[in-house]
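Sample intake sheet
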Amino acid sequence: MNNIVIAGAGTFGTAVAERLSWNTKNRVTLHTIEKDVEKDINEHHQNRKYFPTRFLSRYLTATSSFTVFREADVIMLVIPSKAIVSFSEEIRKNTDKEPLIVNLAKGMSDDGAFITENIPFSRTASMKGPSFAIETINGFPTSFTFGGQRSDYEYFKKEVLTDTQFSLDYSSDVRAVELMSILKNMYAIAIGLVSGKFNSPNVDFLVYTKAVNEMRGFLRIFGCESDTIFRYCGIGDLGLTALNDLSRNRTLGMLIGKGFGFDPDSKSSTVVEGLRTVKLMGEITREKNVTGDFPLVQALYRLLYENDSLNDYTVSVLN
């Protein structure tokens, strides 16, 4: 049996757990800090807090105890990105093995570092791709890029993903896989802005093409493999997030594009990952004196953080 522990029983963690439970060789446990979710999964085979009408596999279990990590073969991290490093350090104290740690969170740590590089385990990987939780839990074919060691990729694909309808492609460049998942949220805001203002596929794909080129530019800045843009984590995840109204980042852009006000310093409970990325990448490109190569990023930065107008934004990105 593959002893799989998924840290995080929110929408995406629950969806992934459900799919992995389809493989009869997987023993899947959801770890959660939410006692009501733990009880609901164990007693009713439901997670009504996140999927009110959905029944889950009766083979899924949940726990809030850290002892569950002790014998895990694979630990999948589906918790907020800013919490992953400290959470992993706690896991390290509670495991007797050297499990494969797979980061599914999308974002950077608070200090701007790549998350996987700071996880205190020797076998780490990052898995990113075009995957909305509702379609994942409903069993639609879903794809990811696995960034990590080739041996871990082969094991995960052949042993863990059997009968799950998950598809993988591969990159040995873990940093590139993580970078793609960070950047796509920012560019989803950029494309959402013009979608809200123009409602034009012509304009959407004009900006989409510019976004792809800028993402390749960031891969070069961070010393990553530029071909990663062609993986599921690249143009696949960008397309899903930037062109589909289920995306929070695109929706934020659309609302601004339609004229709704926005406070970038708001303490809203709704996580819009791209906002922090705009600030970070805007500052990085300025520090490196390459702003001319990243007009979308600079236009976003000026709009969100320097009080440029929406008209200033559209002039900048459409020229």
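Comment: The longest strand covers residues 2-7. The domain at 175-318 is CATH 1.10.1040.10 (N-(1-d-carboxylethyl)-l-norvaline Dehydrogenase; domain 2).
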